Amino acid sequence: RELRETLGWLRKRGKTAMVTNRDATIPEVLSHFDLGSFFDAVVGVHDAARPKPAPDMLEVCLARLGVAPEEAVYVGDSPGDHAAARDAGVPFIGVGTEVECEIRIAELAELRALIAPAAAVVVR
Question: I need a labelling partner for 22 at 20 to 30 A (CA). Which of 33, 54, 67, 123 fits?
Fold first, then answer.
């Protein structure tokens, strides 16, 4: 429930996307959890030359959204997510305790206090 509410809130404020190292299973996952309508773009491992932690997938995502790196925020839960964001020039917010970063939240609902209304948000 928290995920849907947070994604819905973000969707009303800007573009949203998913960047994942998954491949052909992405449509199944989005369908199973009924999440497809929450994203303007979905980028998987086959959409870029290199997977995360390389920045390639994030760069593809930003191009699809028509958003500059500094206008986006990448939300992720792993060191690979953080590295991809850093190397793509995208501000990063870490979720949970698995990633060391400047801005970290315990749960997605905390994004409401951090995200500027016009930002594009890329969710892992």
Answer: 67
Q: How far is CA 45 from CA 21, 32, 60, 95, in A?
A: 5, 20, 11, 21
Distance CA 6, CA 124 (A): 14
Amino acid at 55: P
Q: How far apart are CA 28 and CA 94, in angstroms?
A: 26
Between CA 45 and CA 112 the distance in angstroms is 29
Terminal-to-terminal C-alpha distance of the chain: 17
Q: Give the type of residue at 6.
A: T
The length of the chain, given as a count of residues: 124
